[in-house]
Amino acid sequence: MSFHKKQSAILALFTATSLMAAPICAAPLDIADVTVVTNLEAVEANALDRWPEIAGDLTIAITSGLADHLQEGGDYHITVDVTEISNAGTTLLGNDGAFNQLNGWVYIDGPDSEEPLKKMWIELSAEEGATLAPSDITIVAPKRIAFYDALVTAFTYKVVSEVSELQTEWLVPEQAEENT
Protein backbone atom coordinates (compact mmCIF):
# COMPACT_ATOMS: atom_id res chain seq x y z
CA MET A 1 0.00 0.00 0.00
CA SER A 2 1.43 3.39 -0.95
CA PHE A 3 2.08 6.17 1.55
CA HIS A 4 -0.80 8.24 0.14
CA LYS A 5 -3.24 5.33 0.45
CA LYS A 6 -2.08 4.71 4.03
CA GLN A 7 -2.71 8.36 4.90
CA SER A 8 -6.17 8.16 3.33
CA ALA A 9 -6.97 4.96 5.22
CA ILE A 10 -5.81 6.43 8.52
CA LEU A 11 -7.80 9.62 7.88
CA ALA A 12 -10.90 7.57 7.04
CA LEU A 13 -10.45 5.52 10.22
CA PHE A 14 -10.11 8.66 12.39
CA THR A 15 -13.14 10.23 10.71
CA ALA A 16 -15.29 7.15 11.21
CA THR A 17 -14.15 6.77 14.82
CA SER A 18 -14.83 10.42 15.65
CA LEU A 19 -18.26 10.27 14.03
CA MET A 20 -19.16 7.15 16.02
CA ALA A 21 -17.90 8.79 19.22
CA ALA A 22 -19.92 11.96 18.66
CA PRO A 23 -23.34 11.79 20.27
CA ILE A 24 -26.00 11.34 17.65
CA CYS A 25 -28.42 13.78 19.26
CA ALA A 26 -25.98 16.15 20.96
CA ALA A 27 -27.84 19.30 21.88
CA PRO A 28 -26.71 22.35 23.79
CA LEU A 29 -28.67 23.40 26.83
CA ASP A 30 -31.86 25.39 26.37
CA ILE A 31 -31.54 27.75 29.33
CA ALA A 32 -34.62 29.41 30.79
CA ASP A 33 -32.81 31.82 33.09
CA VAL A 34 -29.65 32.82 34.92
CA THR A 35 -29.65 33.85 38.56
CA VAL A 36 -26.66 35.16 40.52
CA VAL A 37 -26.71 35.30 44.30
CA THR A 38 -24.04 36.44 46.71
CA ASN A 39 -23.91 34.15 49.69
CA LEU A 40 -21.30 35.65 51.97
CA GLU A 41 -23.09 35.04 55.27
CA ALA A 42 -20.85 32.08 56.21
CA VAL A 43 -17.96 34.43 56.99
CA GLU A 44 -17.64 37.94 58.32
CA ALA A 45 -17.50 39.96 55.12
CA ASN A 46 -18.16 43.51 53.95
CA ALA A 47 -17.67 43.10 50.20
CA LEU A 48 -21.31 43.79 49.43
CA ASP A 49 -21.03 47.13 51.26
CA ARG A 50 -18.21 48.05 48.85
CA TRP A 51 -19.55 46.36 45.69
CA PRO A 52 -23.35 46.06 46.11
CA GLU A 53 -23.91 45.75 42.36
CA ILE A 54 -21.70 42.68 41.80
CA ALA A 55 -24.59 40.16 41.58
CA GLY A 56 -26.39 42.38 39.07
CA ASP A 57 -23.23 42.92 37.03
CA LEU A 58 -22.52 39.18 36.93
CA THR A 59 -26.14 38.42 36.01
CA ILE A 60 -26.06 40.82 33.07
CA ALA A 61 -22.67 39.61 31.87
CA ILE A 62 -23.40 35.88 32.17
CA THR A 63 -26.87 36.24 30.63
CA SER A 64 -25.35 38.17 27.75
CA GLY A 65 -22.65 35.54 27.29
CA LEU A 66 -25.22 32.74 27.22
CA ALA A 67 -27.68 34.62 24.98
CA ASP A 68 -27.44 31.96 22.24
CA HIS A 69 -28.59 29.32 24.76
CA LEU A 70 -31.46 31.28 26.34
CA GLN A 71 -34.94 30.20 25.35
CA GLU A 72 -38.28 31.20 26.77
CA GLY A 73 -39.54 28.11 28.56
CA GLY A 74 -36.11 26.46 28.44
CA ASP A 75 -35.52 23.33 30.49
CA TYR A 76 -32.40 24.40 32.41
CA HIS A 77 -31.83 27.00 35.11
CA ILE A 78 -28.38 28.33 35.93
CA THR A 79 -27.71 29.58 39.45
CA VAL A 80 -24.38 31.18 40.30
CA ASP A 81 -23.65 31.41 44.01
CA VAL A 82 -20.76 33.78 44.78
CA THR A 83 -19.33 32.55 48.08
CA GLU A 84 -16.16 34.61 48.47
CA ILE A 85 -15.01 38.10 47.60
CA SER A 86 -11.73 38.70 49.37
CA ASN A 87 -8.37 40.38 49.25
CA ALA A 88 -5.62 37.78 49.68
CA GLY A 89 -8.07 35.67 51.70
CA THR A 90 -9.23 38.53 53.94
CA THR A 91 -13.01 38.91 53.67
CA LEU A 92 -13.10 42.29 55.42
CA LEU A 93 -12.12 44.66 52.65
CA GLY A 94 -10.49 48.03 53.24
CA ASN A 95 -12.19 51.37 52.63
CA ASP A 96 -11.16 51.30 48.97
CA GLY A 97 -12.95 47.94 48.49
CA ALA A 98 -9.89 46.31 46.94
CA PHE A 99 -10.30 42.59 46.34
CA ASN A 100 -8.39 40.08 44.27
CA GLN A 101 -10.31 36.84 44.78
CA LEU A 102 -13.75 35.87 43.50
CA ASN A 103 -15.07 32.35 44.08
CA GLY A 104 -18.37 30.57 43.79
CA TRP A 105 -20.47 27.66 42.58
CA VAL A 106 -22.42 27.24 39.36
CA TYR A 107 -25.48 24.99 39.68
CA ILE A 108 -27.42 23.66 36.72
CA ASP A 109 -30.96 22.52 37.45
CA GLY A 110 -33.07 20.77 34.87
CA PRO A 111 -36.48 19.31 34.27
CA ASP A 112 -37.77 17.11 37.07
CA SER A 113 -34.58 17.44 39.13
CA GLU A 114 -34.71 18.03 42.85
CA GLU A 115 -30.93 18.37 43.09
CA PRO A 116 -28.61 20.20 40.69
CA LEU A 117 -27.74 18.06 37.69
CA LYS A 118 -24.27 19.58 37.63
CA LYS A 119 -22.24 21.84 39.85
CA MET A 120 -18.95 23.54 39.06
CA TRP A 121 -16.54 25.41 41.32
CA ILE A 122 -15.13 28.67 39.95
CA GLU A 123 -12.11 30.17 41.73
CA LEU A 124 -10.27 33.23 40.47
CA SER A 125 -7.58 35.51 41.78
CA ALA A 126 -5.66 38.46 40.38
CA GLU A 127 -2.33 39.90 41.35
CA GLU A 128 -0.52 43.11 40.71
CA GLY A 129 2.87 42.25 39.33
CA ALA A 130 6.05 44.06 40.20
CA THR A 131 7.31 45.74 37.08
CA LEU A 132 10.76 47.06 36.41
CA ALA A 133 10.96 49.95 34.01
CA PRO A 134 13.61 52.36 32.78
CA SER A 135 13.95 55.54 34.83
CA ASP A 136 12.28 57.66 32.14
CA ILE A 137 9.02 55.64 32.26
CA THR A 138 6.33 56.03 34.91
CA ILE A 139 4.22 53.00 35.72
CA VAL A 140 0.75 53.63 37.10
CA ALA A 141 -0.85 50.91 39.20
CA PRO A 142 -4.31 49.84 38.05
CA LYS A 143 -7.29 51.44 39.71
CA ARG A 144 -9.35 49.25 42.03
CA ILE A 145 -12.20 49.23 39.51
CA ALA A 146 -9.80 47.56 37.06
CA PHE A 147 -9.52 44.56 39.41
CA TYR A 148 -13.30 44.52 39.78
CA ASP A 149 -13.78 44.59 36.00
CA ALA A 150 -11.07 41.98 35.42
CA LEU A 151 -12.44 39.54 38.00
CA VAL A 152 -16.08 39.98 36.94
CA THR A 153 -15.09 39.53 33.28
CA ALA A 154 -12.92 36.47 33.99
CA PHE A 155 -15.58 34.91 36.24
CA THR A 156 -18.19 35.50 33.54
CA TYR A 157 -15.93 34.01 30.88
CA LYS A 158 -15.31 30.89 32.97
CA VAL A 159 -19.03 30.36 33.70
CA VAL A 160 -20.07 30.97 30.09
CA SER A 161 -17.37 28.71 28.64
CA GLU A 162 -18.12 25.86 31.09
CA VAL A 163 -21.90 26.04 30.61
CA SER A 164 -21.68 26.47 26.83
CA GLU A 165 -19.76 23.21 26.49
CA LEU A 166 -22.45 21.16 28.22
CA GLN A 167 -24.80 18.93 26.24
CA THR A 168 -28.28 17.89 27.38
CA GLU A 169 -27.46 14.17 27.35
CA TRP A 170 -24.76 14.81 29.95
CA LEU A 171 -27.36 16.04 32.40
CA VAL A 172 -29.57 12.98 32.76
CA PRO A 173 -30.53 12.84 36.48
CA GLU A 174 -29.20 9.29 36.96
CA GLN A 175 -25.83 10.34 35.52
CA ALA A 176 -25.62 13.78 37.10
CA GLU A 177 -23.41 12.63 39.96
CA GLU A 178 -20.89 11.20 37.49
CA ASN A 179 -20.66 14.56 35.68
CA THR A 180 -20.19 16.74 38.76
UniProtKB/TrEMBL annotation:
Extent of the signal sequence: 1-21
Keywords: Signal
Protein name: Uncharacterized protein
Organism of provenance: Celeribacter baekdonensis
